[in-house]
């Protein structure tokens, strides 16, 4: 392992105790040699309350640093400020790699002055969602760079926060570092009274601990590129939660300067201590070479397909990372409670890394009927044979996602079983099959409302409009109540030679379609949104959005290199915007060669981003469907929508909207921080569970 830079700037209790925080006395800190050195009162000029360090990692340990500021204009953060704090802390054997050029991320852009707060860790508005937490909220979090932060929004709380650090952080210090923790939460009520502390657990050492191997837990939405990645929060224990009748998973990531082969991951059955257990499925990430992205994220090798772990294990090269994914499924009969187990990374029977897993199952059960509407393409460019296509369809249904077409003959029992499945929300039908289908299900409105025609894609020319009118008239002559969906991404006005308006996209869609579908960035246009919502109100139209690899940078998409948090929050945005569903053009597109495993090698369509239309692969040995890391986040988002709808029934639309608003509003406004997302999810689930008990 290369030598790691020890970086820890605990100005709160050491440097600023006598000046900024009355009542905070001198604090003893271990020096680099392990002996304690008594701190002295250090006076730092009032205009220079700022220090920021780049955190480095010692094996199995995490070092922290602190940012302090008090309504100080950003132009006062000078080299002198950096030198003052760096020199002061160096006298205690604590060294900071300070970088003043990152300060703009902490600036209140309205008045160009900094908020009153303490930030422990590396964070900014995008990563932490710090300004979305509300008054009186103090939140533990981990940015993608793996640092803990705690926010204090009122200067009178500084003493309280300092006391927390003194009592709960400093005792864990060993040789100038702090054991890596699964979580450190501090909350106050609106009057500033401390209401909750969740302390830090020490790093867990394996029986045969390999100090050259780093391993840590993260949420299932995390994204660590194979080479270009930030070492994450080195958590050796992990807690997550889920409802009954739901899927949920987590990641475990490994990296080292050395190469490894024959590694095995095992997770003991999670037990509630009362005889009930949950067993997870373990997957190993395959890395796809991202050569054509959307200019938002890194290119390079990205974790994508999730292959079931093989008996002979897995490996990775030195200087790379390897993502593992562990997936759990609960049923309506799963007993609520807290389930615990152990994750081990083994080689030749030895346990090189270990960690504790804790899963809380809420006393909440999701309905079989899916609240979120969807339409995911599966009918073209597909590399599955008929049997494997059927299996892929059923995986999507299990994930509460509806594919365009049911891959069975319309007169078969298999078709009938699936069209009746409450998890399926839409079925695209061909004109040739429509007569049989409408006749068979004419007395069953719950099935008929799932059926739709898709005659024209993305109309943008007068010829497209003519085709739309032609097919619409043809279909409705035979099936007057048929629903049509025609996705569009721009508003076109057709004029005659005299310059008079003949028709527009609005007019043609109104005349032909009752399922309104447009790109998320188009739906953000006020004129489009107002028009669509009026159709929903006046005639009950369904409103869909769609995403693709051509999204604008400020909008999320389903590409592999798009972090899972972005994919998941998209469904919170749908709830907040009162949008019913989402269309995605294909979940398993392999391009012109049919070789999905080499999409990143320039062997497929050149105009598409590498993983556009690819949420599922095929196993290279069996041909069976292989899910992706991105598909897990999409499914999680659909289940989050399910929870929001439950909250609306139990708590009211206004309260449910308040939760959604903390995650995402307009389609270009959303948190990118997974900790903020999971914190709000936990709050929402607790509120729903409490309402169900009343």
Give me the secondary-structure topology.
Layout: E1 28-30, E2 36-38, E3 61-62, E4 66-69, H1 79-90, E5 107-108, E6 113-114, E7 117-120, H2 125-128, E8 141-142, E9 148-149, H3 158-169, E10 178-179, E11 185-188, E12 194-198, E13 213-219, E14 237-244, E15 247-256, E16 260-267, E17 270-271, E18 277-278, E19 281-290, E20 300-308, E21 314-316, E22 320-329, E23 337-347, E24 350-365, E25 373-376, H4 386-398, H5 413-419, E26 427-428, H6 431-440, H7 445-448, E27 451-452, H8 462-478, E28 493-495, E29 501-504, H9 505-512, E30 515-519, H10 520-523, H11 526-539, E31 542-546, H12 564-576, E32 581-584, E33 616-618, E34 625-627, H13 629-651, H14 653-661, H15 674-693
Parallel strand pairs: 14-24, 25-32, 26-27, 30-31, 31-32
Antiparallel strand pairs: 1-2, 3-10, 4-7, 5-6, 8-9, 11-12, 13-15, 15-22, 16-21, 16-23, 17-18, 19-20, 19-22, 23-24, 28-29, 33-34
């Amino acid at each position: 392992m290369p030598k790691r830079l020890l970086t820890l700037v605990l100005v709160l209790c050491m440097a600023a105790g006598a000046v900024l925080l009355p009542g905070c006395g001198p604090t003893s800190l271990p020096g680099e040699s392990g002996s304690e050195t008594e701190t002295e009162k250090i006076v730092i000029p009032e205009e220079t309350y700022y220090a920021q360090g780049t955190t480095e990692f010692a094996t199995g340990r995490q070092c922290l640093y602190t940012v302090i500021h008090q309504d100080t204009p950003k132009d006062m953060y000078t080299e002198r400020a950096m030198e003052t704090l760096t020199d002061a802390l160096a006298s205690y054997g604590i060294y900071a790699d300070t970088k003043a050029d990152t300060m703009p991320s902490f600036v209140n852009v309205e008045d160009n002055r900094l908020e009153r707060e303490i930030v422990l860790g590396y964070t900014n508005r995008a990563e932490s969602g710090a300004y979305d937490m509300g008054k009186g909220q103090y939140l533990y979090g981990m940015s993608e760079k793996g640092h803990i932060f705690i926010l204090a929004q009122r200067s009178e709380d500084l003493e309280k926060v300092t006391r927390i650090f003194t009592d709960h952080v400093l005792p864990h210090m060993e040789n100038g570092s702090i054991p890596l923790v699964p979580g450190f939460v501090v909350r106050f009520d609106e009057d500033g009274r401390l209401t909750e502390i969740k302390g830090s657990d020490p790093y867990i050492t394996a029986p045969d601990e390999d100090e050259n191997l780093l391993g840590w837990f993260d949420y299932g939405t995390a994204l660590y590129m194979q080479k270009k990645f930030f070492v994450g929060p080195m958590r050796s224990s992990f807690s997550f939660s889920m409802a009954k009748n739901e899927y949920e998973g987590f990641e475990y990531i490994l990296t080292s300067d050395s190469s490894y082969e024959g590694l095995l991951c095992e997770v003991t059955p999670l037990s509630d201590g009362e005889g009930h257990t949950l067993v997870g499925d373990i997957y190993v990430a395959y890395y796809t070479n991202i050569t054509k992205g959307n200019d938002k994220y890194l290119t390079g090798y990205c974790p994508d397909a999730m292959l079931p772990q093989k008996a002979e294990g897995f490996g990775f090269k030195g200087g790379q990372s390897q993502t593992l994914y562990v997936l759990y499924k609960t049923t309506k009969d799963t007993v609520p409670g807290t389930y615990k187990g152990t994750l081990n990374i083994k080689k030749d029977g030895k346990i090189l890394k270990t960690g504790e897993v804790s899963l809380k199952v809420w006393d909440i059960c999701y309905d079989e009927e899916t609240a979120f509407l969807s339409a995911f393409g599966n009918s073209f460019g597909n590399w599955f044979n008929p049997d494997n296509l059927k299996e892929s369809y059923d995986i999507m249904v299990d994930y509460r996602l509806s594919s365009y077409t049911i891959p069975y003959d319309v007169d078969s029992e298999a078709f009938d079983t699936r069209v009746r499945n409450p998890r399926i929300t839409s079925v695209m039908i061909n004109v040739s099959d429509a007569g049989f289908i409408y006749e068979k299900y004419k007395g069953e409105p719950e099935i008929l409302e799932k059926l739709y025609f898709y005659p024209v894609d993305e109309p943008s020319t007068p010829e497209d409009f003519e085709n739309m009118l032609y097919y619409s008239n043809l279909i409705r002559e035979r099936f007057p109540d048929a629903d049509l969906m025609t996705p569009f991404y721009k508003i076109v006005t057709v004029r005659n030679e005299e310059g008079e308006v003949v028709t527009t996209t609005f007019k043609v869609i109104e005349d032909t379609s009752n399922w309104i579908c447009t790109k998320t960035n188009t739906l953000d246009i006020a004129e489009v949104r107002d028009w669509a919502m009026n159709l929903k109100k006046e005639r009950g139209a369904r409103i869909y959005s769609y995403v693709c690899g051509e999204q604008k940078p400020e909008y999320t998409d389903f590409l592999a290199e798009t972090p899972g948090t972005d994919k998941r929050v998209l469904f919170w945005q749908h709830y907040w915007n009162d949008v019913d569903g989402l269309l995605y053009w294909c979940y398993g597109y392999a391009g012109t060669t049919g070789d999905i495993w080499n999409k990143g090698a320039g062997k497929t369509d050149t105009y598409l981003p590498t993983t556009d239309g690819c949420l599922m692969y095929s196993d290279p040995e069996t041909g069976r469907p292989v899910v992706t890391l991105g598909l897990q986040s999409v499914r999680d988002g659909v289940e989050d929508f399910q929870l929001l709808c439950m909250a609306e029934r139990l708590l009211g639309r206004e309260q449910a909207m308040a939760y959604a608003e903390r995650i995402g509003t307009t389609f270009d406004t959303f948190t990118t921080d997974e900790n903020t997302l999971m914190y709000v999810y936990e709050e929402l689930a607790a509120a729903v569970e409490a309402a169900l008990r009343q």
